[in-house]
Task: structure prediction
Amino acid sequence: MADWSDRTQPTTLVLFDVDGTLTPARKVISPEMKQLLADLRKRVVVGFVGGSDLSKQKEQLGENCLELFDYCFSENGLTAYRQGKQLASQSFIGWIGEEKYKQLVNFVLKYIANLDIPVKRGTFVEFRNGMINISPIGRNCSHPERDEFEKFDKQQKIREAFVEALKTEFSDLSLTYSIGGQISFDVFPTGWDKTYCLNHLTKENFSAIHFFGDKTFKGGNDYEIYNHERITGHAVNSPDDTARILKELFFQ
Result:
């Protein structure tokens, strides 16, 4: 394993959520944040961990994001890269099996069909390598529609109710339901939350691991890693908040 000796703090790793932490939700990283991360990388080891697949992360962080970060954890680390090289991966469909997966998707689609919300678009279930992502409005909605659904969901608790219905229907499966972003929630085997990425770090010698995330509340997709015993957690509200704390911690 590399000893990261080119960093001034080679035993410190700083991990970031993507949406709402490094970038505005589903939008691209700013040049200012990119520069701050480049400067931070001279001091510590830097990585990101998000529920989205790598293609979506590249849309937000740049096509060259594997070169800009030391660790790139897509789908909570179920697809992972270290210094641009892919590590071992896991499969959700291999874990759950085709028959149970079909039952799960059928239930989801029926539930959404009966859901009375102001707008529905397309891609209500997105199949990923390590999880499925469920969106009541549909992932094809526009940015203004995203913003409107987020406001509606905060009032009506659409996603929370959906999760409770799934927990009841599939109580026999060891599944975790994690609300993140503005319009959707992830479903994955218990233990495959963002703490999964820490499995890739067992042979490293990090004395400190920091994590920055905006969904650190119980049920949010940053909650488990934010509260993990190995992690020093930082709850943020925006990329500006992330930048402010980074400057206080590492650039004084």
The radius of gyration is 18 Å. The longest helix spans residues 98-113. The chain has a mean pLDDT of 96.
